[in-house]
Amino acid sequence: MKRYAKDSGYKLLASGDGYFFFNDNYNMYVEVLSFDKILNDSKERNRVLFEKLNLL
Question: pTM for the whole thing?
């Protein structure tokens, strides 16, 4: 996937753990992320809520 993303003009995210691309023809933004990145971001974003609900 990394090779495909680089060869297709995708740029590395600032965090270094994914790629992004903006397609002007379709006015579309695309990100390529690993499942682990999505899961970790979700946990961090919702951490305070889970703590308030005593789920952590």
Answer: 0.71
The pLDDT of residue 55 = 83
Count of structural domains within the chain = 1
Q: Which residues form the domain of 13? A: 2-52
What pLDDT, on the 0 to 100 scale, is given for residue 56? Answer: 72
Which residues does the chain have with pLDDT short of 70?
none
Strands 18-23 and 11-12: antiparallel
Q: Using alpha carbons, list the distances in angstroms from residue 56 to 19, 23, 27, 45, 50.
A: 31, 40, 40, 14, 6
Separation in Å, CA 5 to CA 10, 11, 18, 27, 32:
5, 8, 9, 19, 8
